[in-house]
Amino acid sequence: MPCRFRYLISLFVLTFALIALGSPLLGQAQSQSPYWTEAAPATIARQELYPEVLDGKIYVVGGFLSENPGFTDHFESYDPVNDAWTVLRPLPEARHHITLSAVNGLLYGVGGFTGGFPDWRAQPTMFIYDPASNTWTGGTDLPAARAESVSAVVDDKIYLIGGRVRATNDARLFNDHIDSVRNEVFDPATNRWSARTDAPTARNSAASAVIDGKIYVVGGRNFVRNADGTTQQVNVPNLEVYDPQLDRWETRSPMPQAQGGLAATALNGKLYVFGGEQWVPEQKVFAESWVYDPQTDVWEALPPLPTPRHGLGASAIGNRIFVFGGGTRTGTAATTIHEVLVLPT
Predict the structure, then answer these.
(1) What is the per-residue pLDDT across 291-314, written as a single tens digit (0 to 9) for each?
(2) For residue 27, what pLDDT is reported?
(3) What is the pLDDT of residues 255-284, one digit of tens each?
(4) How far apart, in whole angstroms, are the C-alpha atoms of residue 95 and residue 58?
(5) How many angstroms separate the CA atoms of 123 and 160, rounded?
(6) How many whole angstroms separate alpha carbon 229 and alpha carbon 210?
(7) CA distance 25 to 188
(8) Which of 98, 121, 144, 276 has its CA 20 to 30 A from that of 345?
(9) What are the distances in angstroms from CA 38 to CA 21, 56, 74, 190, 321?
């Protein structure tokens, strides 16, 4: 047998053996670029999600269902080790667009809307969940009712930024609310809310993450009332960074594309954002995903979502980003889809 032919056969056999044995050598080669895979679907289809990670598990509370006025008190957690969802004690009251934040082993659900469209009304309530007892208790209400905000935890304090507030005390409809620049902080040690420096941009349906003690707020949209009385939801690409220590905002390079109703998370010092929707100039749902490096102030494209979605949740654990739920059509079509972006190790 010619020497070259024997070499090719040996190479084929070695490659086959590496594949069959799941060789880490091949794994290293495959892991040089991010790629998408699938995980266990959520137990119900819902959108407008603001998840939180606590003790290695992802928690998701409330949300909006496809069938109007289907907002929910549903609460569940996802364990990435077992690739399994667990249904937990529901919220005391149903909410959608409610934020969730983890401090000292507890989860704080803040604000959100009640009602089905267009009968949305922002709420000031705080609900506190204790995983050890699987129970909810009441907390300290917001100074003003708010929904579609972003929340972030720095130094065991909860910052609530932007979103929509009631234009009047008796506001009962979606159009009775306006976008806000409010930036308020809650200290669980004192059970008090305090005002901080307002955000540069009034917006709703943005996303946020914490990197090196600073809060990154990205994307979202403006609720615009035109001169003729009509309204529009106009996406914004803005990226603004808040430093709680200095109580100061900084404007960074905007997203390459304005996406509202998107999801964001942080991993290894970078900001990752996914999906979203657009209402004008045409309705569409985004698959586009991006990563931002604060060190270079540069955005780069990621592999797009396998399933374009808005109002979805994203959480990072290990070298994976779990992206779940959301709607597959503008404003609706909630799903249980759960896709995972695996990053290089």
Answers:
(1) 999 999 999 999 999 999 999 999
(2) 39
(3) 999 999 999 999 999 999 999 999 999 999
(4) 18
(5) 14
(6) 38
(7) 48
(8) 276
(9) 22, 19, 23, 42, 11
Domain boundaries, the chain: 1-30, 33-342
Decide: helix, strand or coil at residue 28: helix
What are the Cα distances from residue 216, in Å, to 220, 239, 265, 319?
Answer: 13, 7, 10, 20
DSSP string, 113-172: EESSTT--EE---EEEEETTTTEEEE-PPPSS-EES-EEEEETTEEEEE--EEESSTT--
Is 308 within 8 Å of 255 (Cβ atoms)?
no
Give the DSSP per-residue string, 243-293. Answer: ETTTTEEEEEPPPSS--BS-EEEEETTEEEEE--EE-SSS-EE---EEEEE
Q: Is 200 helix (H, G, I), strand (E, B) or coil?
A: coil
pLDDT, tens only, 118-146: 899 999 999 999 999 999 999 999 999 99
Question: Is the overall model pTM greater than 0.85, yes or no?
Answer: yes
CATH number belonging to domain 33-342: 2.120.10.80
Residue with more model confidence, 223 or 66: 223
State percent of the chain over pLDDT 90. Answer: 85
Structure tokens at 145: 């009712």
Give the pLDDT of residue 31: 55
